Amino acid sequence: MEHRRETRHVSTFFVTGANSGIGRALVEALAARGQGVILATRSEERTRPVLNELKSRYPSARLQWVHLDVSDLGAVRRVAQSFLATKQPIDVLVNNAGIAGTRRLSKDGFDITYATNHIGPFLLTNLLLPRLKEAPQGRVVNVASNAHFMAKELDWSVLERRTEPKRSAFKDYGVTKLMNVLHAKELARRLSGTRVTTYALHPGAVASNIWRSVPWPVQWVIKLFMISNEAGAKTPLYCATAPELATATGRYYYKNREAKSSRLAQDAGLARELWDRTAAITGP
Questions:
Q1: CA nearest neighbour of 202 among 232, 223, 182
Q2: Above 60 in pLDDT, residue 183?
Q3: Which helix (H) or strand (E) element contains residue 200?
Q4: Which listed residue (173, 199, 252, 253) is catalytic?
Q5: Could you read off the pLDDT of 88-147 as tens digits, one per residue?
Q6: What count of other Cβ atoms lies within 10 Å of the Cβ of residue 218?
Q7: What whole-number percentage of the chain has pLDDT above 70?
Q8: How much of the chain, in percent, has pLDDT values that exceed 90?
Q9: CATH of domain 12-282
Q10: By the 8 A CB rule, do 84 and 14 touch?
Q11: Is 129 exposed, middle or buried (0-12, 13-18, 19+ CB in 10 A)?
């Protein structure tokens, strides 16, 4: 009697901000499972040692690096175009790159916190959607935060181009995390009837590199009360891989289970308006 060997589908994960913090821990967890991972980061110098170490430890994993500054819309377009041209699959996009407490402008004239945490990921997601739709079960995972509860309103001026930086406080980080949750919600609505599902999540209060722009004494104190990057990667890993979530979409998660988001995050009208306004500034 002939025995047929079952072939396991090896998924490909496109992870931004993958060389440190939660992203680095997530990539390692995926590599340990023998999955394919594209590490999308700004710095080859800081990513190459990570890539070499992971390749050495997990030789069966398919790992590669893509140079991407997600705050630069031109760079996002170039990377998406060149990647799509390779015909490589993407099963899961993890919008993980983030920043907090930085007062400067992006190349396009947006406050860097908004450019990095929402505007760039929004454009990247839209551009990679055609490939995600080809996957057996595509997923978009937004690493948000319970900091989104801090946002009590959306001041649309945060999406305006400016000549001087204005937004840099922790409150603004909270607003961008609200945008991440709303983005996942509206994207789920727009992808209804497709094989692509979306998720937003709170990884926990993680002592990651996202706090690199916070003054060191403050950074040292707050990190005393935070969890490790490995612990913080558990919920992103769950949203990116759990089979039981294949039919769930547009929801919010914490500690590997669905959690309640803020009142604003559940506002479908606000989610649609955020989409329309962001689409207007990122272009087609």
A1: 232
A2: yes
A3: strand 197-202
A4: 173
A5: 999 999 999 999 878 899 999 999 999 999 999 999 999 999 999 999 999 999 999 999
A6: 11
A7: 88
A8: 80
A9: 3.40.50.720
A10: no
A11: buried
Q: How many angstroms separate the CA atoms of 59 and 64, rounded?
A: 12
Cα distances from 96 to residues 118, 120, 134, in angstroms, run: 10, 11, 22
Q: In the chain, where are the structural domains located?
A: 12-282
Structure tokens at 193: 């009837």
Q: What is the mean pLDDT of the chain?
A: 90
* Token pair of 265 as six digits: 């995050």
Q: Is the Cα dihedral 275, 83, 21, 99 positive or negative?
A: negative
CA atoms within 13 A on the CB side of 57: 13
Residue 197, Cβ neighbours under 10 Å: how many?
24
State which H helix or E strand residue 254 sits in. Answer: strand 251-254
With bands split at pLDDT 50, 70 and 90, how would you rate the model's confidence at 25?
very high
Instruction: Check if 173 is active-site.
Output: yes
Return the amino acid letter for 36.
G
**113 close to 102: Cβ distance less than 8 angstroms:** yes
Instruction: Tell me the C-alpha distance between 181 and 271, whole Å.
Output: 9
pLDDT tens digits, one per residue of 235-277: 999 999 999 999 999 999 999 999 999 999 999 999 999 999 9
- What 8-state DSSP symbol labels residue 264? G
From residue 127, alpha-carbon distances to 63, 73, 93, 237 in Å are 22, 11, 11, 23
Paired tokens of 282: 């990122």
Task: Say what the pTM is.
Answer: 0.91
Amino acid at 247: T
Kind and range of the H or E run holding 236: helix 234-241
Token pair 């860097």 is at which residue?
112
